Structures are given as C-alpha cells and as structure tokens.
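G.,

No rush on this.
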Amino acid sequence: MALDQLDDKSEMGFLDHLEELRWHLVRSVIAIAVLMITAYIFQGYIWDVVILGPTKSDFWTYQKLCELAEMLRSPALCLDEIPISLQNREITGQFVMSITSSAVIGLIVAFPYVFWEIWRFVKPGLRSSEKNASRGAVLVVSFLFLTGVAFGYFIITPLSINFLANYTLSDSIQNLIDIKSILNMLIMLSLACGFMFQLPVISYFMTKAGLASPALMKRYRKHAFVAILVISAIITPPDVMSQILIAIPIIGLYEVSILVSRRVEKSNEKKNT
C-alpha cells in the first residue's frame, strides 16, 4: 500500500514537471509567434534595410571601413561596389523567404525571453551553491548571443558577401545570385556567431563538470589561434586589416574563456579544501 502511494506521488511529481515544462514552452512559442508576426508585417522595411543591407555599398559596415581606410591610408579596406544582381527563381520563393526571415527574426529577438523561460524551469532543480554561481546567467547568455548575432551581421556577413561577390573565375561570368542564398548565408553566419559567442559560458559549465581546464585550453591555444586566422583569411578580402578585424574578437573570446575556466577551477579548489 505504501509503495503504491509512493509510486503515485512520484508519478504525479513527474507529470507536474511535464505540465510546468509545457507551459514554459507554450509561452516561449507565443513570444516567438508574436514577434514573427510583427516582423512579417514590417517585412518590406526589414528586407530593404536589414536583410539586403549587406549587399549595398552604402551599408554601415562598408562606410566605417572606408573611414578606417582613410585613417590608415589603406585603400583596400574601402569597398566601392558589390557586383551582384539578385533574382528569385521559384514561384513560391519570395513567400517562403518572407516566412523564413520572419521566423528567424522572431527567434533572435525572443531569445532572451525563451532562455529565461528555460532557466525558470531548470533553476529549481539546482543546489543553492549552483544557483549562486550561475546568478545572472540569463543576462550573460542573452548579451553574448545578441552580441554574436550583431558581430555576424555587421562584420562577418558583409565581408563574406563582398569577398564572394568579387571572386571571379572569368570576366565573362556574371554573378546572378539567387536571393535565397543571400538569406541562407545571413541566417547561417549570424546564428553561428551568436552561438559561437557562448564560448565563455560553455567553458564555465565544462570546467564545472571537469571536462575542461585552463591548462588544457592554454595547451591548445596556438592551435585555436591558427584555426581562427585561417577562417578569418578565408571569409575576408585579401588584406591583413580585414583579417585582423575578424580575428581579434574571436581570439578575445577564447582568452575570456580561459579566464572563466581559471576562476571556476580556483572556486572548486577552495570548496575542496
């Protein structure tokens, strides 16, 4: 009898957790849907200014690069023209892209709220020490994600588009670019940078779990720097300044991750002594 009651309580507890998780997910989906509909309503402005911005020579990044080129007397940094012509080759293409872009924008803008809902579900299961150690997690994760998305949009994407648009095999070949490829590149690079900027957070939890250490990250620092420089050289125009503009923030993230890992390791050592 007692065992039956215990099983019922355990089952009810599990079902209660599922019900709570369901409502967190429902609220998150509603937030994304509301922002998605808002983005769809203003899709004309979003496409002309935001999505197609990196394909235009008057984009903010290109203007700042020209100003920097004047200061450093490096004409290669100034981008005068992007030789591409955009086209849509599918009858449903523009409609599908409007839905896709609205959904992605809704997800990006709603990310802080969605993560907050997830954190509200996870937090009660943490120990008091873990709660204290992860204080401000929502703010830090949201800030790093949005900063990474901005870095991908304002830095990585325009430099990549400019490099690929000016890369030619022959003067007789004209770049008639499917607009879907521009949208896919923008989404991929922006979201990839958003998640890449979570490296300090990943370092924190991996060190907590004993899967990483500052010594290990220092040991592979040179390898990481070489990989970063190679990636920077691939996605930027063939000049040193552009590669440095890309590499410095990523290298900085790696160094911050080492500092975070070191702090966590010292905290663990104090608890064990």
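When you get to it, here's the other one too:
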Amino acid sequence: MTMKRVNQAVNAIAAGVQLFSEGVQLFSDLKELFSNFKANVRRNNKANLQRNKMANVRRKNNENQPKYKPLFTDEIIKKVYLDPKMKLSDYGHFIIANAAYIAVVAVEGNTPDSRKAVVLEFKENSAISIEDIQQLLTTYPEATLIVNDNGEGKILGELLKKNGIYYMPVHLGQNCFSNDNRKKYINKRAQSYFCLSRAVNMHNFKIGQLHNKEKILKEFSSIQYSYFSTQYSFGEHSRFKIMSLSEMREIGHDAPDIVDLFAYVFLENTTY
C-alpha cells in the first residue's frame, strides 16, 4: 500500500470518527430537547390542572354564595317599640357598650332562646369615654357589663381595664362556645341575631325610648341573613349566617352599631 493510500485511509477513518462524534452530539442534543419538551408539557399540564381546579373552586363558591334575605321585615320592626303590657319579673340588668353607643337593658331569663329584654336607655359614646359607664354602674351596681373591645372598641376596653372595671368581652366573629350552636350558626353574630329576631317576633324585645328611632329602624332593615351550606367538622350542614360588616359596606350599608348592641343581649353564656 502506497503512502498516498495510507493517508487516504487515515483521512477516511478520521472523517468517520468526526461524523460519528457529530452524530453522538446530535443524538445528545435531540435527547435534551425531547427531555425539555416533556418537562414543558408536564409544567403546562400541571398549570392547566391548577387553573381548572381554581376555576371549579370559584364556580362552586359562586354556587354556594348565600342568598341573603332581610332578617327583620317592616312589620316585624314595628314590634320593637315598647308595649306597656309587657312586664318583666325576676329580672337583672345588662350595660352594653361599643365604641359608639352605650345602653342599659332590663333582662329576664338566663338563656338567650327564652330571654325577654327591654332597652331602658342608650346614648352615644362618640368620645370613647368610660365616664358614662362608671355612672351607670353606680346606678345599676349589680348589672353585667358587656363590651365589644374589638377594632375601635379596643381603646374602650383598655380604659376599662386600666380603671379596674371588669367586663364580658364580645367577639361576634368567633365561633360559638357550644357544639350545638356551632352546628346551627356560622358564628356568634349569627347566634345572637337569630335569638334577637325570635325575641322580636315573640314580642319579647322592646325599646323603651324614642331616641334615634329612625336610625334604629334603618339599621334593623339592613340586617340580612342566609342559610349557608359548608363542610364542617360535624359533617355537611346548612348553618344560619348574618351578612358580615364588610359585605354590608360593599352594598352601601353602614355598620349597625346600635342594633349590634341589642344583639349582644342574646349572646350565649351571658348571665345577670
């Protein structure tokens, strides 16, 4: 074999090796490309599944949105102003307060389901002062003091504690204490308003003064309720729900500060 042929053979082998190397690289590139493609497909599928899941959740939430109705009709609201024939026996007193108002209520019955109540007086507390509360506690020394110390009421609660005045705190957004009530009501707000509405319907709740009557009637008419289906630890239940303050504001209603006070009277575990 001549040197020329040897060189040609070497060059051919080198070309073959080069071609093989390029083929291996091309295969490796194709493999990586295919692997990336599969990863992208998996990510897209996962993203699509997540979007579909969220869409289903939103659809179900929309389907489960409570259909609200007025809790107090105009006819019912008219029942709250004092009927002279209503008499209480063996009764005590609640002094109830939030950041805006203070009220004194004569109460008969230590269970919210059967309680009767007459609002004796109430006044504005716009300055968030405890002077009126101290005066009322002097007038009604055996009264139970019930205070909403959330939000703006936090200042009121701190003032009372600073002055050594004991009170029962109100947190309407919390769950009810008893298991039976948890099965029936979304929260304490729902429980207290349900019992208030029952008392109004049975002529067991009256207001003994005309102060702020127009505002009170407007607040009563703004309260709305629904029966809300939700998965709960006790199983599937339709529980009583009162429209929240944030939902009320969304449709143009103000916070029912006075009627909230009246609802405090019917909270579970309140005694005199």
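The beta strands are 69-70, 92-97, 101-108, 116-124, 144-147, 168-169, 205-207, 224-232, 235-242. Residues 1-65 form one domain.

Enjoy the weekend,
O.
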